[in-house]
């Protein structure tokens, strides 16, 4: 039996603070612990075309290892649940039965145990929103601006725009007006503005999963503004006695999470390295 010694905090690069106790709690009780991760920018490197995104190969390997050790591994994403499962190859992971995907900020779900998707019907008004957004993008006419149809939401992307500054100046306020007119909300992200129905966020999605699974300790990692409600939820859960560690996947595009994080990784490759460290330590303790 291996000694249950405290984790080497220097190796895990955990800032002094509540993340330290959370890491110990996860290592001591992995079966009742949750790992929640965002998809794009945290597991999957940011690329020009959303439909070609994949999980970093080392991230996929680490997820595979962790899904055998932790009670719950959840991908909590703005992506449709089906897209995350397919792009991430999640159904093929060894511990897939312990994985959950909460897609479209918690509106959709995939359960690895049953392989079933829960996808509510598209919200009222989405066809009109799509039409108005398409007309706006056509009228603005900036090459490289693209529309992502997420069936219950629409993403306007300008990562590949010929003139990203002109694109944001021409699009953002008018896209917000379209959202307001149809009682939709907006979700700003990395070179994207999403128009989506209100009422769900990653914090709510996380809270529901914690309650459902009886989670006793957690780790959550994200990279963008849409992850902040999950950060808030981790802080709220700490006050309720559930320790939580926050990982930020840092990028030059977004620094809103950095000061709040217990661990800062530089993009999905470093997130993957950190997840492997966690898997190594869990394997060592299980040996
Ligand atoms: O919650 P997430 O898993 O982080 O998803 C947020 C949005 O990510 C995607 O867009 C981002 O990644 C693309 C691929 O790397 C990139 O081209 C784009 O610029 C990024 O904003 C995705 O397309 C959206 O649907 C997600 O809501």
UniProtKB/TrEMBL annotation:
Pathway: Glycan biosynthesis; trehalose biosynthesis. Keywords: Hydrolase, Magnesium, Metal-binding. It is an enzyme of class 3 (hydrolase). It catalyses: alpha,alpha-trehalose 6-phosphate + H2O = alpha,alpha-trehalose + phosphate. Its cofactor is Mg(2+). Pfam families: Trehalose_PPase. Its EC number is 3.1.3.12. InterPro entries: HAD-like_sf, HAD-SF_hydro_IIB, HAD_sf, OTSB-like, Trehalose_PPase. One of its GO terms (biological process) is trehalose biosynthetic process. One of its GO terms (molecular function) is metal ion binding. Belongs to the trehalose phosphatase family. Removes the phosphate from trehalose 6-phosphate to produce free trehalose. This is Trehalose 6-phosphate phosphatase. It comes from Naumannella halotolerans.
């Amino acid at each position: 039996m291996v000694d249950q010694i405290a984790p080497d905090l220097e190796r895990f690069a955990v800032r002094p603070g509540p993340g330290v106790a959370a890491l110990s709690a996860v290592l001591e009780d992995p079966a009742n612990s949750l790992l929640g991760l965002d998809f794009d920018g945290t597991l999957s490197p940011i690329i020009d075309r959303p439909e070609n995104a994949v999980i970093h190969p080392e991230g996929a390997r680490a997820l595979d290892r962790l899904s055998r050790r932790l009670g719950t591994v959840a991908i909590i994403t703005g992506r449709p649940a089906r897209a995350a499962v397919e792009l991430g190859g999640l159904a093929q992971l060894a511990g897939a039965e312990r994985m959950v995907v909460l897609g479209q900020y918690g509106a959709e779900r995939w359960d690895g145990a049953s392989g079933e998707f829960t996808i509510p019907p598209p919200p009222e008004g989405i066809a009109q929103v799509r039409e108005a957004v398409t007309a706006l993008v056509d009228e603005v006419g900036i090459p490289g601006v693209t529309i992502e149809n997420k069936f219950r939401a629409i993403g306007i992307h300008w990562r590949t725009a010929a003139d990203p500054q002109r694109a944001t100046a021409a699009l953002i306020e008018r896209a917000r007006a379209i959202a307001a007119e149809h009682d939709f909300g907006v979700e700003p992200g990395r070179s994207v503005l999403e128009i989506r129905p209100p009422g769900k966020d990653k914090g709510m999605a996380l809270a529901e999963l914690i309650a459902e699974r009886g989670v006793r300790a957690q780790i959550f990692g994200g990279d963008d503004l849409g992850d902040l409600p999950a950060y808030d939820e981790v802080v709220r859960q700490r006050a309720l006695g559930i320790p939580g560690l926050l990982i930020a996947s840092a990028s030059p595009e977004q620094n809103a999470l950095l000061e709040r994080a217990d661990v800062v990784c530089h993009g999905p490759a470093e997130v993957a390295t950190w997840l492997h460290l966690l898997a190594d330590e869990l394997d060592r303790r299980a040996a």
